[in-house]
Amino acid sequence: MLPPRKTRTIHVKHLAIGGSAPIAVQSMAATQTRDIPATLRQVRILADAGADLIRIAVDSQADVDALAQIRAQTASLLSVDLQENYRLAAKVAPYVDKIRYNPGHLHHHEKDKPIEDKVAFLVDVAKRHACALRIGINAGSIAPEYDARFPEDHVSAIVACAVDHCALVDALGFRDYVVSIKDSDPRLVVQANVRFAERRPDVPLHLGVTEAGMPPEGIIKTRIAFEQLLSRGLGDTLRVSLTVPFDDKGMEIKVGRELLDDIAAGRFRSVPPNFFDGLNIIACPSCSRVENNRFVELAAQVKQMTAYAKEHDLTIAVMGCRVNGPGETDDADLGLWCGPNFVNLKRGPADVGAFSYDDILAALKRELDQLISAGGAS
Questions:
Q1: Which of 233, 264, 295 is the last residue of a domain?
Q2: Potential cystine with 184: which of 89, 144, 282, 309 (Cβ 3.0-4.6 Å)?
Q3: What is the pTM assigned to this prediction?
Q4: What confidence tens digit (pLDDT) does each residue in 192-213 have?
């Protein structure tokens, strides 16, 4: 059996999260929200797979209008993923049950306004509409002030940010919130969540390995983190992030429940000592921010094309959007982030150029071969 958890119980409408409540399994619609038929179909695929909660991203008024129509046509619990405009919370709150904000994005709008005021705005909206909150922190988009305080220590920066935002929300008398601390490296996910839980054992945790990538590697990376955390009694809700075709997104729910069953039954999988050696391809699971559906196909093509370099210690990141893509490819040796018509290629944090979807693989191979020839890999 899974060990008991110490967190308090919060509610997303009728769904209890934390404490002795069952661990909730959720996912995210990968379609563009303003494409109402496609998004409704995605919601139904996830609901049919058994999702307890379904997240949708909103980045514009068109998305807000679409969300209102989606809400009218589904009884599923919906969470909204706010992008860089935190003020959209007031427009989407009537149609959702939970609001996720990223502390690393709060500085983008109204830069002269204190972060405390922005959090107070979000909490007020959540209170008025009986919504829960998720404080969602990604290692690839750490708030600038925490990067400055901990320039060489991502884990300390992430944990400090999470603890500080919990304190802000607590001071406003709001309790229905969870925290997520994610990265594409499951080892960092484990370190950061363990350290956060030591500071705030009462706060429910949402677990996930962001940009885990394609099966089977994406499932293995997720399993590594979940086994280490759930076996410690850490984790109250979870999402498995896989780069798969839209019609297969129900796999995230299926895999999540299988992992829970395995860990509860003590069926742990050993991880080879060299699992993290050699070529590492990370890829985001796709969401409504993706502006060209060729992204999922491209991720698979990158994996296939780079197979010849599997023995080299390099990381290639394939990101589907312009929101997270630029920042979350900085730490990769080679990074791709996709726009509507072009794929942007980076070598470390430096831009190489923008290439068409037809030309990007050749450009990527040139850069990869140069890195290998220059001894940039072992």
A1: 264
A2: 282
A3: 0.85
A4: 999 999 999 999 999 999 888 8
